Amino acid sequence: MPVLSAQNLSYSYKTKYQTVQAVKDVSCDLNAGTFYALIGKSGSGKTTLLSLLAGLDTPQSGAVLVNGQNLREMDVDMYRRKQASVIYQSYNLFPLMTVRENVMYPLKLLRHSDAGAKNEAQDALKKVGLDESYWKRLPAMLSGGEQQRVAIARTLAVHAQIILADEPTGNLDTENSAQIIGLLSGLAHEENCCVVVVTHDSEAAKAADIVFRMDSGRLKEETA
Ligand SMILES: Nc1ncnc2c1ncn2[C@@H]1O[C@H](COP(=O)(O)OP(=O)(O)O)[C@@H](O)[C@H]1O
Ligand SMILES: [Mg+2]
């Protein structure tokens, strides 16, 4: 069974003057252990589709199934804390928390003990290559690539099954981008996660097992 399944998803933004249909009748099955790239022009609906899969928005029609269960019938807050983790271009770290506190934060929400959260956080940080010398720094004292690695450690620490990344390398140079893509593909292939990466980076798309293209709200699988 796919971990995540989109069934005829549609989503429109309605403003006072117009309606923009951002996602049109999109269906796909996404599996564990697979690294997906989602490409397409700016404005084609990639971020909107990711938001629907992440439970941040509710489709006007169609359904998102998580391990076969309709997201509408699930506790969406718990889904977002435990199962699905979103990574953004702008890292979205808490600026006044240390690196370690940032990674511990979702674990605290899940009511892990302080000591347990600290251990999990440190293990995750080591996995993304950030040793002890980073743990007590604030995000502003890190490079962009390092900040993105903290964001990845945060998803590693909760053992999220689904990783949704929206242009995670958009602010990074080639070398740092390659590192981030390597980590994300490792999450798919070594930790058995379902990883979806929205990207403009052709290297990232090359690393993917399956490439989807959004075109004016519609989704198509690219064939090599
Ligand atoms: N909050 C919003 N209100 C109105 N229109 C929006 C909003 N967010 C996105 N859109 C429109 O929806 C379409 C898809 O946007 P988006 O999903 O952000 O595309 P992409 O991520 O591929 O650039 C675009 O036409 C965009 O202008
Ligand atoms: Mg976008």
Structural write-up:
- With 224 residues, the chain is of the alpha/beta class.
- It has a single domain, classed as P-loop containing nucleotide triphosphate hydrolases (Rossmann fold, 3-Layer(aba) Sandwich), CATH 3.40.50.300.
- The chain has eight helices and ten strands.
- It has helices at residues 46-54, 76-83, 99-109, 114-127, 132-135, 144-157, 174-189, 202-207, and strands spanning 4-14, 19-30, 34-39, 61-66, 69-70, 84-88, 162-166, 194-198, 210-215, 218-221.
- Strands 6-7-8-3-9-10 form a six-stranded mixed sheet, sandwiched between helices. Strands 2-1-4-5 form a four-stranded antiparallel sheet, covered by helices on one side.
- Strand 7 (162-166), helix 7 and strand 8 (194-198) form a beta-alpha-beta unit.
- The protein starts with a strand and ends with a strand.
- The model has no long low-confidence stretch (mean pLDDT 95).
Q: Helix count, per DSSP? A: 8
Task: Provide the structure class.
Answer: alpha/beta
Please list the strands of the largest sheet in the order they lie side by side.
6-7-8-3-9-10
Based on the coordinates given, report the CATH architecture.
3-Layer(aba) Sandwich
Helices and strands, in N-to-C order? EEEHEEHEHHHHEHEHEE
> CATH superfamily, called what?
P-loop containing nucleotide triphosphate hydrolases
Question: How many beta strands in the DSSP annotation?
Answer: 10
Q: Any idea of the CATH class?
A: Alpha Beta
How large is the radius of gyration?
17 Å
List the helices and strands and how they pair.
Elements: E1 4-14, E2 19-30, E3 34-39, H1 46-54, E4 61-66, E5 69-70, H2 76-83, E6 84-88, H3 99-109, H4 114-127, H5 132-135, H6 144-157, E7 162-166, H7 174-189, E8 194-198, H8 202-207, E9 210-215, E10 218-221
Parallel strand pairs: 3-8, 3-9, 6-7, 7-8
Antiparallel strand pairs: 1-2, 1-4, 4-5, 9-10
The protein binds adenosine-5'-diphosphate (ADP) and magnesium ion.
